[in-house]
Amino acid sequence: MAASTRQKVVLITGCSGSGIGYHLAQAFRAHGCRVFVSARNLTKLSPDLDESFDKVTLDVMDEGSIQKAVAEVESKTSGKIDILINNAGQGCVGPLAEVPISKVAQTYETNVFGLLRVTQAVTKGMILNRSGLIINISSIVSYVPTPWAGVYCSTKAAVTSLSDVLRMELGGFNIKVLCVFPGAIRSGIGSANAAAFEQPSDSNYANVKSRVLQRATWSQCPQSTNAADLAEEIATAALKIDPPAYLAAGHRAWRAWWSYYLPYWAKDWFWGRQFGIDEVGGKAAKTM
C-alpha cells in the first residue's frame, strides 16, 4: 500500500555519472518526489538530470560541505527532508596483507564515516519533525565477504551494523531505516575498481593478480541487474507506509543471503575456488 501522496523530499548522495545514484534520482522523481541530487562536483552529474531535479554540492568527506548542503536543502523545503539516501561510496580491491593503509582509510572515510556524517546532519531535522526515512546502500558482501575485497566488504559490514543500530536508536522519533543489499548491479564500479588496483612490485600475490582483477569486476557479469531496476525496487519499498528494514535485490542477492548460513569451511572452499585462493602460498612465486 502506497504512502501519502504529499510530495516527499529526497536527498541522495553520490549521484555522479550514470550509476545507482542517478537511477535512484530518476526512480524517486517518477514517483512524484522532489529530488535533491548531490555530488562533490556538480559538473559530473548526468545532463539527463535536468531542471526538474534540484542540485546541491555535497562532499561526504567534508563536514563543512555537508552542513552547507543540508542547510541549503532545508531552506528550500521548509526544513523538511523526508528521505535521505546514503548512496555515495567507493570500491577497493587487493589482498589485506598488502593493500595500502591510505586506501583503506580513504574507503572508510567515504563508505562509513561519510555516511555517518551526512546521517548526523540530516537526522537533526528529522528528529525535530518526528519523521523520516534513512536508506543506506550496503551490499551482499557485508555478510558474505570475499577474497581480494576485504576492505570494501568490511566497510559494507559496518554500514549494515550502523543501519541496525540507527533503526533502534531513531525509532522513538518515528524515523525508519532501510538497509539495502544490492547483488550484482550493472554500473561502472568494476572498471573503477580495476583501474585503481596497484600491485606492489614485490607482492607475494603476483601470480594471482588476474584473480584480484577478476574480483574487481565480479559484479559486472552478463546476468547483472540493471541499476534502473534496482532503483525502482528501492523506491517502491521506500514509499510504502511501513518500509521494510532490509531489502536484498539484484542478481546473486538471495543466493548470497542463504549462503551466509553455510559452515565456514564450505564458504572458504567455494570462494577459494572462485577467486584462486588455492593458487596462493605453496604454489605462489614471487616475480623478482
From TrEMBL:
Which organism encodes this protein?
Pseudomicrostroma glucosiphilum
Gene Ontology cellular component list: endoplasmic reticulum
Q: Which family does it belong to?
A: Belongs to the short-chain dehydrogenases/reductases (SDR) family.
Please give the name of this protein: NAD(P)-binding protein
Q: Which CDD domains match?
A: 17beta-HSD-like_SDR_c
Against Pfam families, the record matches this protein to: adh_short (PF00106)
Instruction: Cite the entry's keywords alphabetically.
Output: NADP, Oxidoreductase
Give GO terms: molecular function aspect only: oxidoreductase activity
Record-linked InterPro entries: NAD(P)-bd_dom_sf, Sc_DH/Rdtase_CS, SDR_fam
Q: Would the keyword Membrane be found if you checked this record's keyword annotation?
A: no
Q: Which Gene3D superfamilies match?
A: NAD(P)-binding Rossmann-like Domain
Keyword NADP present in the record's keywords: the answer is yes
